[in-house]
From TrEMBL:
One of its GO terms (cellular component) is plasma membrane. The chain crosses the membrane at residues 13-36. The gene is mltG. Keywords: Cell membrane, Cell wall biogenesis/degradation, Lyase, Membrane, Transmembrane, Transmembrane helix. InterPro entries: MLTG-like. It comes from the Bacteria. It catalyses: a peptidoglycan chain = a peptidoglycan chain with N-acetyl-1,6-anhydromuramyl-[peptide] at the reducing end + a peptidoglycan chain with N-acetylglucosamine at the non-reducing end. Functions as a peptidoglycan terminase that cleaves nascent peptidoglycan strands endolytically to terminate their elongation. GO terms for biological process: cell wall organization; peptidoglycan biosynthetic process. The record marks 245 as: Important for catalytic activity. It is a single-pass membrane protein. Belongs to the transglycosylase MltG family. This is Endolytic murein transglycosylase.
């Protein structure tokens, strides 16, 4: 009887503790459901007052959502972005639009696909794959007239970087603030051609357009990242290594498999581009003395991924980082002709190395 009484007491205590928690969770879920449902509805079904909105050339979904929220066309920019992603909408057009607060999200999306460009691009900036932040600063400088020094000062300004982390939380995290990282935004300015309607847009506009593009591209890989258990920072870091090692003829998925195989076995990645990044030099060939450079980026002396990306990476390398081939290769070597030879053992690798390096 005593045990039964104690059991009842325990059940009552558990009930008293869990019941309020359960009610809080239920209330929170209901609140979230109501909030999202409300955000998906028109701002004001009865207000058909025309609202003029301009969507500039090169605007990402992130930018468009913010413009619409700022003009009172939608209730919540974040919910709009998730709606667009969930519905798989794309191909939004730049242009002048007339919206109303009574429009549904589907009506707004439909209209955004039929816009006419209002202004021609006065400036185009092309950022190729495999470029480092300093090289990107030079490209921007050549196109805009801003000095490379001013651009790098902006790109490395801690207060500005903190602002960007708040603006783009799905892409920029505190991972980029690691003290071992040379440049926080290295690898985060996506390689693409960017169009601007001004001859000399602000540096903030240029930088944030590129980060918004990164956000837009990575959104497509969110499920893949989750499946591999990778963070954005890890993905961009791995993809940058693949990008820097790949040649035009290279099989990026096989290169990725080598890196993952070595990580799984606890072997250092031993990839030369990380040594060159550590040295801060562009060289045709890495020598044995270079491999001793004391840097957290040197993957010959440090196991695992380097602290961060060593360059920007294109979609092919991003895809390879998330979908590596299944191989038992642990080594690869790029020949002078651009072919990449994959091998399983160090002896095989050294034989191929002697064969091809001797010809350089």
């Amino acid at each position: 009887m005593l045990q039964e009484h104690e059991a009842k007491t325990v059940r009552k205590i558990v009930l008293y503790i869990t019941a309020p928690l359960l009610l809080i969770i239920i209330a929170a879920c209901i609140g979230l459901f109501v909030y999202i449902r409300s955000a998906l509805q028109p701002v004001d079904p009865n207000d058909k007052t025309p609202i003029q909105v301009e969507i500039p050339i090169g605007s990402s979904v992130y930018t468009i959502a913010n413009v619409l929220e700022k003009n009172g066309v939608i209730k919540n920019a974040t919910i709009f972005r998730y709606y667009v992603k969930f519905k798989n909408h794309a191909d939004f057009q730049a242009g002048n639009y007339t919206f109303t607060k009574a429009m549904t999200l589907e009506q707004i999306v439909g209209k955004l696909k039929t816009g006419k460009v209002v202004k021609e691009a006065k400036l185009k900036i092309t950022i190729p794959e495999g470029k480092q932040l300093t090289q990107i600063a030079t490209i921007i400088s050549q196109k805009t007239g801003y000095s490379s020094k001013d651009i790098m000062t902006k790109l490395t300004n801690r207060a500005y970087i903190d602002e960007l982390i708040k603006k783009y939380p799905s892409v920029l995290t505190t991972d980029i603030l690691n003290k071992n990282i040379r440049y926080a935004l290295e690898g985060y300015l996506f390689p693409a051609t960017y169009s601007f309607t001004e001859e000399k847009p602000s540096l903030e506009n240029i930088i944030e357009t590129m980060i918004a593009k990164t956000e837009e591209v990575l959104a497509k890989y969110a499920e893949d990242m989750e499946a591999r258990g990778m963070t954005v920072h890890q993905l961009l870091t791995m993809a940058s290594l693949i990008e820097e090692e790949a040649t035009e003829k290279a099989d990026r998925e096989k290169i990725a498999s080598v890196f993952y195989n070595r990580l799984e076995k606890g072997m250092p990645l031993q990839t030369d581009p990380t040594v060159l990044y550590a040295l801060g030099k562009h060289k045709q060939r890495v020598y044995y003395k270079d491999l001793e450079v004391n840097s957290p980026y040197n993957t010959y002396i440090h196991k695992g991924l380097p602290p961060g990306p060593i360059a920007n990476a294109g979609e092919m390398s991003l895809h390879a980082a998330l979908h590596p081939a299944e191989t038992d290769y642990f080594y690869f070597l790029a020949t002078p002709a651009g072919e990449v030879i994959f091998t399983k053992t160090l002896d095989e690798h050294n034989r191929e190395k002697a064969k091809y390096i001797g010809k350089q």
